[in-house]
Write a structure and sequence with these properties.
The structure is a single chain. This protein has 200 residues and is of the alpha/beta class. It has a single domain, classed as Dihydrofolate Reductase, subunit A. The chain is 29% helix and 26% strand. A hairpin with a 5-residue loop joins β9 and β10. The chain is globular and about 50 Å long.
Length: 200
């Protein structure tokens, strides 16, 4: 079964954007951009909310026509145009090419999507991620921690009623100081503690 992978860039103090939606603090150089290209090319679909989708759709469909675009940007423009996209929105009427609009996050429908053949499903956007996390639908979290403190803005993770146990499965540092932390859900966490308490 395919995995749902939450994939986000965050500041060291946990924000995905500044108070006015700024993301100019992102440290994306050729090495990191190529990493994103290689990773996203293997996904079966990109899932996002309307705001994230419209931000991407305003630039990437024609980014490779820009004479100032880097080779990595030219490559990603083709990747973005061709990859299937699922947009969760109550207001968006339709998207452009390879885009499906879904009105609600319905767990049974998400599980059916995961059961289809193909690559894993990338999830982006804090509000949508919060809903998927609340419903226990996120299998993996890939955080790209940028070496900057922005002080205020929109946090990635909302308040939650209970902890979510995770297991670190990969870490990597890029040349520009960005650190990748990749976690999977740990369904076994707490079992040993319970057994230990019972035997005390």
């Amino acid at each position: 079964m395919r995995k749902i992978v939450l994939m986000m860039s965050v500041s060291l103090d946990g924000f995905i954007e500044g108070p006015n939606r700024e993301i100019d603090w992102h440290r994306v150089d050729a090495e990191l951009h190529q990493h994103f290209n290689n990773l996203i090319r293997g996904f079966g679909a990109l899932m996002s909310g309307r705001v994230t989708y419209e931000l991407m759709a305003s630039y990437w469909p024609t980014a490779d026509k820009d004479p100032d675009a880097s080779p990595e940007e030219v490559e990603f423009a083709g990747i973005w145009r061709n990859i299937p996209k699922v947009v969760f929105s109550r207001t968006l009427e339709r998207g452009t090419g390879h885009t499906t609009v879904v009105r609600e996050v319905v767990p049974e429908e998400i599980m059916a999507l995961k059961a289809q053949e193909g690559g894993d499903l990338a999830l982006g956007g804090a509000d949508l991620a919060a809903e998927f996390l609340r419903l226990g639908l996120v299998d993996e979290i890939r955080l790209y921690v940028h070496p900057v403190l922005i002080g205020a803005g929109k946090p990635l993770f909302p308040e939650a009623e209970a902890p979510t146990d995770l297991r670190l499965v990969e870490s990597r540092t890029f040349g520009n100081g960005v650190a990748l932390l990749r976690y999977e859900r740990d369904t076994t966490a707490g079992a040993g503690d319970t057994a230990g308490a019972g035997g005390a």
